[in-house]
Amino acid sequence: MTYQAPVNDIALALETAAGLSNLIESGIAEGVDEDLVNAIVEEAGKFAAEELAPLNAVGDTQGASLEDGKVRLPEGWAEMYNNWAAGGWAALPCPTEFGGQGLPSVISTAVNEIWSTANLAFSLGPLLTQGAIHAVHAKATDELKQMFLPKLVSGEWAGTMNLTEPHAGTDLGALRTKAVPQADGIYLISGTKIFISYGDHEMTENIAHLVLARLPDTPAGTRGISLFVVPKILINEDGSLGERNDVYCTGVEHKLGIHASPTCVLSFGDNGGAVGYLIGEENKGLAVMFIMMNAARLGVGIQGVAIGEAATQKAIAYANERRQGSTTQSPAGQMVPIVEHPDVRRNLLTMKALTAAARAICYATAREIDISERASDADERAKAAYRAALLTPVAKAYSTDLAVEVASIGVQVHGGMGYIEETGAAQYLRDARILPIYEGTNGVQSIDLVTRKLPIERGEVVKGFIAELNQIVADVKASNAPGFDVMANNLDAANKALERATVWIGQKVMSSPDEALAGATPYLRLFGIASGGAYLAKAALAASRKANGAAAGPVELAKFYAGNISVQADGYARTITDGGASLLEAPADMFAAS
Amino acid sequence: MTYQAPVNDIALALETAAGLSNLIESGIAEGVDEDLVNAIVEEAGKFAAEELAPLNAVGDTQGASLEDGKVRLPEGWAEMYNNWAAGGWAALPCPTEFGGQGLPSVISTAVNEIWSTANLAFSLGPLLTQGAIHAVHAKATDELKQMFLPKLVSGEWAGTMNLTEPHAGTDLGALRTKAVPQADGIYLISGTKIFISYGDHEMTENIAHLVLARLPDTPAGTRGISLFVVPKILINEDGSLGERNDVYCTGVEHKLGIHASPTCVLSFGDNGGAVGYLIGEENKGLAVMFIMMNAARLGVGIQGVAIGEAATQKAIAYANERRQGSTTQSPAGQMVPIVEHPDVRRNLLTMKALTAAARAICYATAREIDISERASDADERAKAAYRAALLTPVAKAYSTDLAVEVASIGVQVHGGMGYIEETGAAQYLRDARILPIYEGTNGVQSIDLVTRKLPIERGEVVKGFIAELNQIVADVKASNAPGFDVMANNLDAANKALERATVWIGQKVMSSPDEALAGATPYLRLFGIASGGAYLAKAALAASRKANGAAAGPVELAKFYAGNISVQADGYARTITDGGASLLEAPADMFAAS
């Protein structure tokens, strides 16, 4: 099987969840039209199928490793990257003043999905470079922008994010990497960073490390953290490359998946200090880093969609090929392709429905980011920024939890062959498992949603969002299309569950935060269930209005989701409002190590 | 962390779900008393912690491989096995007339759990040997029993199950391995079997392969299949070992997990035919194989419990050790162990609750097997056999689906460290992933439950079981213990959902089988949710009656399950009764390969 970009599904999600034509009409997606978007998606799909997908298994098998101080990537990896950059793909979402194409987030999101579907371990590199570009562009001095952005935008250099230290993962306030200011305005960085994806390699001639560090005598916790850009190779005044900077990879992790992505231990300043340049103000580094992290979180959500898509395509291909057993309709003594079995169809439709729901939520988030950055009206920008802030943790966590589930179902569809590594189904499960962890664990996303995002504008933002979900249900009801009434009832019940849980948790955040925290994970799940169902229904409505044969797929998918996923909403609402008590009452010895 | 057998949890499940004291009183567990059981569990736990657990990671890292035609096991593996057999553990569940200890299934189930928790890849070997003993003991001639059983019971030889062929996995009727009868009463076997766990090794001096094969000119499908025992080394008349039989390992699979368990391709008869001995009657092999498979299915369910336990212990240990962030109660600027965070507690309690529920269901199934084999009253035996038949697919599939989920949560609790192989959390996820696949995929279990088990005695068996669940809820209500009313309401709703779905699916099996098949997987899930909740409540009742400090754990666990897992039941019931329509209506092109 060759990977095929799901151009129709992507187009439908862009049209409905991302409201692409509205973005085009309103001038937010300036210079873009549907034909251009379709052409980009088609081309990306072609490149991904031809260049990225064939190296996915190679990357998994060979992995990245540290040999004689150098990070070795799998065979063909550097060439693949260079072809990708040469195709202009690195520049696609980047600012035009530094050589980028300035395309909106909805398009880069779709294209990122395609890269990640074909080769997740590859896609992580560009995702981090995009994050670095974002931060430098947003907050660095013009001089630094000139120094770094043209090379990063063209893909000649790569970027990394250096947050985690051995004792400081989720809790960044605890980090200890030091930055000592020098007379000439630079800083000397020293310390150890771990879990640095693409932390070192020779795929690009230079690497821009974005590094969180602490100045001497700064306040404890997060208020004392600054952000620096630290090039792997120092840059001369004329822009040419100079000496090696004092940052080295001292280890590459042995991981469950994404083997080709080198997860590095980076040691800064072992020989006196790595030269770093401050981005933004001193002690305000975390705020800048959040710019990178929010974009990266949506990017990781999209990786979840991508793994869902890849696992689904593979499972469908196998289910059509593998013959086993008979059905109620098949001729006696003849084995049918297993896709004919209702239980296998349940697995495949579950995979498709969850993937499509996650895609819709991610694309809807990208839409809000575009409006927040590009709308002419400041109020509109602010409103969209809030909406994007609300949806980002859902896009990240719901999509990536589903990715693990979908990849696991994909293994199951393959039966015994799914457990054999050469089949490739297991790689998706192994690769997927990092997604709920990195860029803020899904637990952190849930807590972020509940404690920081729900309270925005005293709850008006989430209220407005739920009102929009309700409007979709009203449209579904009003459509009177066959079977849409049942779908609307299921969606309505899910929305009501979300409303009920939102009110409850919104009060508890203030009055009894531990109860809110105990319900955070099921709340995010419920949020994802309800919004995914609404977006799929919106897509079904749009497809049914086109009134041609293509409608059946999106319509049945939305019905399936409503009848099989949305119906779980009430259970989660009850978990949130009633299930947390036993958790908080549980005696400490239930959690004692044996 | 060292693995610790959860002796208290096991004792509580034996007492409540397995009704051990009742089995002892009624003479079914003859010669056993609680002290003996506790001593066995303690000893097994000690052996597992000292001998099996330390090689779990070694086995994963080194794996099994085929070198110069010989299967190489990890270092120390054979010695570990020999120590285990020398300790008399192989003989524990085996018939006394061949040197076994004849202990009931409830005890061997508890002990099997302990082996699997410490080292899943190891435990698979003994599990298959037990199955082989079962089949030979049940159906072979006395001569064959004498030839094989003493050596298998002592653990000097191992046993395997040879069902699958490349084109015949779930659909055994399609198998092609040939058995040609010879003048001297033996058969010459030829063909290829795949996915044969412990199919070859030098850990034991001989291996007894139980092989399904087809005689010449037999009816097509499952009615033409016979069962043979095929020794790796031929056995002389005096019982000594003779020539090598014509069966060879031609490949060892490269798998996602259980690396130390050699999954072999076995080639029979490349040099004229492997000598095999018929077990039972010609063409009736599948019925005999089902004797092995049913025991093995419960054994796999127990492996699911075991992985749940192992992953939970590891996650709890890490959560107590790793410090990160602060809580609403912690002193400012001080990091707390992550076990203090409500969201982490939700993860840990979920792991504990699902594991305990799965354990209870498996132990309850073992109880029915014991009664079905050992009760003096024939009616009682028949009733218990039906109940065991009903529960076996639930024990297998619910426990193993949960194992994957629990192991995945375990990775999540470890954050970034969970993705690093050296941590060991990821191994549990990789190992667990085979459990929903082997010994009949969980889809097959669900279909078995719905199409073959529900109709037993025109539905009276399942009806009787649900009545028992309802009785537990009534007892919970009647207890008037604090908070038990809420728990009872949640459990009651789950039972009602199960009843409703059972009636619906029971009718559909007759009138519209595709609708029943479409609901099979969620039905099994619902069955597991409801019965697990009832068993945990039963345990909570028993613990609370003891009225000492130890009650809090089981009580809070049951409350947590009721408030967070049982509440999902209604959604699954709705999926079964209403969610299948979209699945059956979905157009074929939604399942077409791209």
Give the gist of this structure.
Two copies of one chain form a homodimer. Chain A contains 20 helices and twelve strands.
Class by alpha and beta content of chain A:
alpha+beta
What's the architecture of one domain in chain A in CATH terms? Answer: Up-down Bundle
Helical fraction of chain A equals: 55-70%
Binned strand content of chain A = 5-15%
**In the CATH scheme, what's the topology name of one domain in chain A?**
Butyryl-CoA Dehydrogenase, subunit A, domain 3
| Rg of chain A, Cα atoms, Å | 24 Å
Mean pLDDT over the residues of chain A: 96
> What does the main sheet of chain A amount to?
8 strands, mixed
The CATH H-level homologous superfamily of one domain in chain A: Butyryl-CoA Dehydrogenase, subunit A, domain 3
Terminal CA distance of chain A? 48 Å
Shape of chain A: globular
**Overall strand count of chain A:** 12
Instruction: Give the quaternary arrangement of the chains.
Output: homodimer
Count of helical regions of chain A: 20
* The level-1 CATH class of one domain in chain A: Mainly Alpha
